[in-house]
Amino acid sequence: MGAMVGFLSSKVLGQYDPYAGLVSPRAAESHPGGRLMFVAPNVLWTEQEINVDPDDFRLWVCLHEQTHRVQFAAAPWLRGHMLQQISTLGSFDVSPWDRLSAVVASVTGKGSGNQPDAGLGPIGHLLTDEEKATLSHLTAVMSLLEGHANAVMDAVDSTIVPTVKTIRRRFNARSDNHGALDRAIRTLMGMDAKMRQYSNGQKFVEYIVERAGMDTFNTVWTSAETLPTEAEIHDPQRWMDRVLT
Fold it and tell me: Assign residue 75 a region: left if phi > 0, alpha if psi is -120 to 50, beta otherwise?
């Protein structure tokens, strides 16, 4: 676990914590709108690794994280909604033996084969149907949040971040330079799959904005019912048909 956390800690550039104010009354007073955090050594290392303008790169990263602050400000109900969804995971009444039996049956090929694992692999068989549905919902929400932040940071023009196109191109290309061990760890930990989810989220946002405009897209922040499902992230037109008609 320590090795996994150590590996991940070297990859994070920044983070917006919407729950900073829930830690204590003092924290709530200091960070009433959540807390923006940046890992300075990682930002410095990355900008040097891909050889981009430091001021532009740092502003580019800040745009992404600041977008998360705006998201939660536009949808103040979202913080509580996500917390409630996360709290339900693992709270369903299923015995550990039943969960283990499902995994064994899957690995040995003796399972029913009727339940998709949503790309989770064997770990998916540790989850109940209710947990899978909750995880699917959270995956869709995270894809939306990260995809929207990516869309914003890529939509700025050269008057704001002069070298934005170069930054995005080199930032994306650096994954091709990862060693075999690094790629294996990323695959094992699901990081590549997570990046694909964020890419799908960005495509979802850009599809709707291109066809209906930003004001229409912002309908997504109205309530939990207007959030996209995981299927709608992959098919934005389904969201438009459901929410806008």
Answer: beta
* Residues contacting residue 163 through CB under 8 Å, at least 6 positions apart: 52, 53, 56
Residue pair 146/198 in contact (Cβ under 8 Å)? The answer is yes
- Tell me how many degrees the CA angle 72-131-64 measures, rounded to the nearest 5: 25
Q: What mean pLDDT is predicted for residues 77-106? A: 67
The answer to whether the CB of 72 falls within 8 A of the CB of 79 is yes
* DSSP secondary structure code for residue 36 in this structure: E
- Distance, in Å, from the CA atom of 117 to the CA atom of 123, rounded to the nearest integer, reads 8
Q: How far is CA 91 from CA 87, 95, 109, 117, in A?
A: 7, 11, 28, 19
Q: Cβ(140)–Cβ(229) under 8 Å? A: yes
What's the chain's length in residues? 245
pLDDT in tens, 222-245: 999 999 999 999 999 999 999 988
Query: What residues contact 69, with CB distance under 8 A and at least 6 apart?
Result: 16, 33, 34, 36
Q: How far is CA 49 from CA 43, 54, 147, 171, 241, in A?
A: 10, 11, 24, 9, 44
Residue with structure tokens 């979202």?
78
